[in-house]
């Protein structure tokens, strides 16, 4: 009778250890699921001021109201005669004011720029989400349409997390002049999988921004900028999107750059060159 006891104790220990491991795993997965939006979105809560960024006299503060009743603030520099306007959907951990540095070369070249503010960012009300960001994007584009700017004089520019908004808007507004994606991702679950490979992220992530499923149906020409050293969204994401796109386009890879240090003036020059090869549609010429 005494012989089997050590084996029984060993089995009991293994079962207890396995049980604790499962509990820890489930608790970790549940915690990440509940906290995921705080881990995806990093909004800058303070409202940016034009003078802080040297944008006074160059841009003006504008407001729109979303379909769900939020009043959002952004910055606008109207376009010069017969010039397109770039609708800029900025990246994470920033706000629309922080993108004036990137926008300035376009403004100096005569392009209009709308730095679109999101809910929860830059002093705007509301909480970030994929569906909410799409509502914000529609509100900004519709506001331009109401002023008489046709879609074929609009360039949709998405940066990092904003590439999900820009790509969705390119589907919903297919007559826009172009879609420009800076440091884009195939989908947020794909990004999360590289960091949380041990979790079923496809089942957990609520805000999916599945660019890879949409890019093939985008009609406007597509230009992609991506840093080869990007360790947040690897350059393979940009390449996969470019390969999946069916509309004409180009991809520019920057060997010495990562996610947050792409050269603004070079990006602007290459984007302006790309836009110069495109012709606005008939509605822009009326």
Q: Would you kindly provide a written description of the structure presented here, covering whatever features stand out?
A:
- This protein folds into two domains: 1-40; 44-278, Alpha/Beta hydrolase fold, catalytic domain (Rossmann fold, 3-Layer(aba) Sandwich).
- Helices cover 39% and strands 16% of the residues.
- β5, α4 (162-172) and β6 (178-182) form a beta-alpha-beta unit.
- It has an eight-stranded mixed β-sheet with strand order 1-2-4-3-5-6-7-8, sandwiched between helices.
- α2 crosses α9 (264-276) and α3 (130-146) packs across α4.
- With 286 residues, the chain is α/β, with parallel strands linked by helices.
Write the layout of secondary structure elements.
Layout lengths: L4 H36 L19 E6 L5 E7 L7 E5 L10 H9 L3 E5 L13 H17 L7 E6 L2 H11 L5 E5 L5 H8 L5 H4 L6 H4 L7 E6 L7 H10 L4 E6 L9 H13 L10
Comma- or semicolon-separated keywords:
286 residues; alpha/beta; Rossmann fold; 2 domains; 8-stranded mixed β-sheet; 39% helix; 16% strand; disordered C terminus
